[in-house]
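Input chain follows. Return structure tokens only.
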Amino acid sequence: MVGTAFNGQCFWFKCVTLRTWCVALLFSAFCAPLFAGPDVIASGLFKDKALLTIDGKPRVLRAGSTSPEGVKLLSSNSQQASILVEGQTITLHLSQRISSSFKKPKFSEVKIPRASNGHYFVAGAINGRSAKFMVDTGATVIAMNINEARRLGIDLRQAKPGMSSTAGGMVETFRVVLDKVSVGSVTLHSISASVINGDFPEQILLGNSFLSKVEMTEQAGVLVFRKKY
């Protein structure tokens, strides 16, 4: 009896002839599981909906629906999606990819489908705490109301105070610098933001202090952020 290790697994077989050895070696080479299905990237994750890039084509799937390539979305939230493909149930996190030949992308990329009201909403994080943004190219900086700032643990004691004109009149503001802002796999550091003393805006506005630091394009109702690694 001879013990031989292949790919971390030990196979014991009787070395009677050269043919026996070759058969055993061929068997061990095919023991590792292979994925032969389509190339799938989790480009955008939402509650009960996901934007999957399948063989290079963007597909927006709702839970329970199946793409033309045969990829079924079982469930999804802002953190991960569960899909059924080639009879396998696979969990994908944002920007994670499955394919038969994985290559590390040169860019970190996030795709955001346009909502029914024409705006772009995306989940992310500020200083490590979850946040939901509305993309606003008209906002100079990231802007949020004071309640969101408190929820995110932003310290306003050292913030620079000021005033800003809104539709409701002049309001007190505080200028801060956020340590880290993440949208999907795109993370930026030291980003300027404005905290407004009031209930406006209802959504955190993802303004140009973030947007100006990424490549941004729109493709058939999908907003694409791209940042070099």
